[in-house]
Amino acid sequence: MEKEHILELDPSRYSQSMSIIGKVKLGDFFTDDLYDKVVAAVNGEVRGKASVIYDPSFKEYFVYLTFIVIKLAKKIFHFILGCFRGKLKEASLNSELTIPYLADEVIGTYTSPAILTIPK
């Protein structure tokens, strides 16, 4: 296994957030690898990170990602998935490579999760 990338995050610098309830898809398959991570970034600056977790109440693997911004900022988020032997790869969210920030929004639900996809 490769050494994990250090991705720094200081939530005290920000005042608003947005969240994703999602599943991580690697190629054609959904991951069940608890070492897979998702990172939300703005211009290369980490604004949120989460690991894949198993939710026993749904008997499925999800990612619960909250990302943060400065109040009233209109930022565009890029998603990076840390997977495939520790290498960082760009991911899409519901087939989009970037999404606009919407204060206090939640993308996805437990019954209809957002899909974070990385091609093989």
From TrEMBL:
The lineage of its organism: Bacteria, Pseudomonadati, Bacteroidota, Flavobacteriia, Flavobacteriales. This is Uncharacterized protein.
